[in-house]
Batch of 2 targets.
Target 1
Amino acid sequence: MPLHTETSSTPLPPKYLQDDKLTQECEELLPSLPKEKGWVSSYLYQYRGFWHSARQLQGVVACQKHFEAQDSDIFLVTTPKSGTTWLKALLFALVNRMQYSFMEQHPLLMHSPHELVPYLDSKIYVENQTPDLSSFTSPRLFATHLPLVSLPQSVHECPCKIVYLCRDPKDTFVSLWHFANKLRLENMESNSLEDVFDRFCKGVSVYAPFWDHVLGYWKESLENPDKVLFLKYEDLKEKPTSQLKKISDFLGYPFSSEEEASGLLEGIIDLCSFDKLSNLEVNKSGKLSSGEENKAFFRRGEVGDWVKFLNAKMVARLNSITQQKFDASGLKL
Ligand code: A3P
């Protein structure tokens, strides 16, 4: 299991949001793509209908070109700020439950979930165009925010599994705004809520448009239910036990009746809870090799926190976009 941690005092945005040190292939691709001002990176580029920073795009293209999925792989796919950190912790604890005691020495007590389940495109392939993945043990867990259209072809072709998690766009936006502000450097112009709200509604933020991202996986989960499990943050909050059982059955790691009777599900849920993870020393003071502080991934972890930040006009606008976009799909967020 490769770990990705180190400390750095260099005042730069995370590596995947930097604009320099691009490959020639990426330098040549960028001028042909639509371009907009970024929230943290200087620019975002539209590739296959979704927006990426320059360095991130380089990871996306390299991963599409070189990544070979294996049958036992598990992909955790989310839109940014939908609860990826939580999903990483839950799936890591779930598939590795025979190996570690939940009481002590569990890797989640000592490492950020982002170290244990790295991002495929925005971490692994941003750092190395042809990474050596041989140290990953089976089942390999990879996270990504890639839209369905940009997943490497081999992911579609082999019977690996995709667990998709999304969240109410109002909470997702508010969480993203806070996160982007944490990543911005002191010398950067600040992001007003109104300005970035407008850009989010227009679909211009990393791995957005939000609605197209969600719809892509929603439709795939209906057409291909053995391949894609579609989950909502709100359901995970409300019914964590039944959702965890659903995930374990879907992945082919069902809980035995003995495991259920011993309280294992509750143990995993407790270990991965917001209160537990956010209060661990590693998540209070550690830093990822990509540059973010671990604590940046834990803010409030609540459903409906948007009420404190969005005015009635903003709520009406977001609700109306969501309704229009999801109208024919049967999906409700
Ligand atoms: P808020 O900003 O609304 O608090 P991601 O992990 O995709 O970056 O999403 C981050 C969001 O998930 C943040 O939401 C964060 O607080 C919340 N989160 C992180 N860990 C969580 C957990 N264990 N349980 C519930 N929510 C969690």
Target 2
Amino acid sequence: MSRVDFGITNGIAVLTLVNPPVNSLGGELRRALLESLERAEADGGVEAVVLMGSGKGFSGGADIREFGTPKALAQPNLPTLIRTVEELRKPVIAGIDGVCMGGGLELALACDYRVGVPGAQIALPEVKLGLLPGAGGTQRLPRLIGVESALNMIVSGAPVASEKLRDSGLFDAFQPKDILKASLDFARIVIGERRPAKRARDRKINLPNAEAFFQFARNIVKAAAGPYPAPLACVEAVAAAVEKPFDAGLKRERELFTTLMLSPESAALRHVFQAERAASHISGVPDDTPTRPIGRVAVVGAGTMGGGITMALINAGFPVVLLETTQDALAHGLSTMRRNYQSALRKGTLDAAGLEKRLALITPTLDYAPLHDADLVIEAVFESFEVKRQVFEKLDAVMKPGAILASNTSALNLDAIARITRRPQDVIGLHFFSPANMMRLLEVVRGAATAPDVLATAMRFAKKLGKVAVVSGVCDGFIGNRMVMRYAEAAHDLILAGALPHEVDAALQDFGMAMGPFRMSDLAGLDIGWALRKRRAAESPGRDFSDIADDLCQAGRFGQKTGAGWYRYEAGSRHAIPDPEVTAIIEKYRAQKGIKPRKVAGGEIVERCVYALVNEGARILEEGIAQRSGDIDVVYLNGYGFPAHRGGPMFYADQVGLTDAARALRRIAAAPGNDPAVWMPAPLLTRLTREGKTFNEYKGPAS
Ligand code: NAD
């Protein structure tokens, strides 16, 4: 329930926004505020109005849940409210503390005066959702704090501490504390001195050389904006504030805002924002499920992943017991961590004392005994069921009752791991991505027996590590790797058909992927897949597991680490250079298989690789491995470099239209050489197409 508290103190009406946690300006609060403003205006005993927030501060701005729905525009909308404040026949003073962002700041800018205290966070973050401040922010802020400072805030969306803005012109009074008292004191002065209304809209902007300034700003912003139209639109809106009278500037701001609101880039960013929030809700696990306390954590294995996970833990302040098999492996793990911190030291984001403080949180051990009182243990040993069996048997024996036993396995069956122990309800998968201290994504793997409070605890713990967690059911590769396998297969098929690795990579990078699949494969190393194929061939004699990558490995090309893979690399460089030797290997392979190469266009490359992801995503969704399509998008955006301006593979398919996606898949399935079992649209995709629904509208098997 949101409301506005109305009180009168010595002729001053105090209007307090109450809509926890950040007083977002949803329809109900807007209506309540309008009524309160009208009441204050009508009350003969009121000489001035103080408008302030409660809880976490003034206001965090628009209610994101209303975005893109008719509710956002329902009367009174924010522009109406702002006009009412501006036209009120009594002075309105905004008391700004805590969060003052977006529409919240725009409301404050429309008041006659602003009073501030230290510790407030001031921002116009709309650009982060592909928008611009659409309720006068681009017109009023430059009039108050100057064009350059305003433009910086609007284009970056970054919060600025109120202390820094103390003398900027934003505040008419700034007090050390107590926003209510500071606002009331200031209101008394305004009343006492009969100060005239001091509206931002009436101020003139003085900017010599405005044309040159904006040309420079456009150049800089355009270069940095990439595929996003919003930053440049922000510049245009601020330019209008300088070049046009106030109302004409407002009109221009509205036009630009409306265009951005309808842009696919903003739709994608808003989807991502909402999908990340939705991902923390788990079906069958109510949000108020009690969690287990996590204080001490243990990590088993100090290799690539164990080391990265330990860094993520100590960065968040968790004490860690780190277990290895030999003193050498421990020493190697610790020295790698120290080395990995060097770039933070160089950048100045961490100092030497801070580094030592973090490393001091680690208790290295070769013995299981010190693990007994850890609340959570994360296993990151070799990817072998036998090795993991030994580890989990020991963990089961030493860990205290109620401790959570997590595995970082990429491909082993979590339920089989859980069955090693006598407490499968306490076993969960925490699938980190490499480098684990940097990558935001965490797949939380829900086993058949995993207890609800263990899941709830894992999600809370992920948040403490600064990760975005997505729940996955148990299957080969979970959500991310299962899909990326299909993507890689599609990319390989294109090579067989006639494309070259750099052509496939270039097409997908033009689409927006951070890195094409062959550059990614060179980075990860080709030897892992080679070993896996050899093992599978030995397990299933008579089946063909061969791959062009085998021929590359045979030639000693394991990727970046050997200076050659799908590309070649100059010593010490990560720059991928197309290599005629690779072309020769590919041509020989095609000839052996009797394939006549053809020209493959960029559009076909993108279509095949992205729809391979989408089709597997549809299967994952239908099987209930992922809870919702947005979760799949969050995985792909945060773990696999899918471009945020396309919102993730499932959202992308929704935008293109599922009918078109299904038709393209049927066309690929029917082409010679393609396996229809792989390429035919997944049953869920066909069903949604028939029902005229999107992936985003799919709410599980019952829907
Ligand atoms: P790694 O070879 O770099 O490290 C494994 C470490 O475990 C080694 O330091 C080894 O000494 C130690 N170890 C082996 N047996 C042990 C035992 N019984 N007790 C204690 N320590 C033991 O391997 P990695 O790449 O860090 O992978 C570890 C796990 O993480 C695997 O299950 C892997 O599938 C998974 N994983 C890896 C990645 C990745 O990108 N490398 C990503 C996600 C998950």
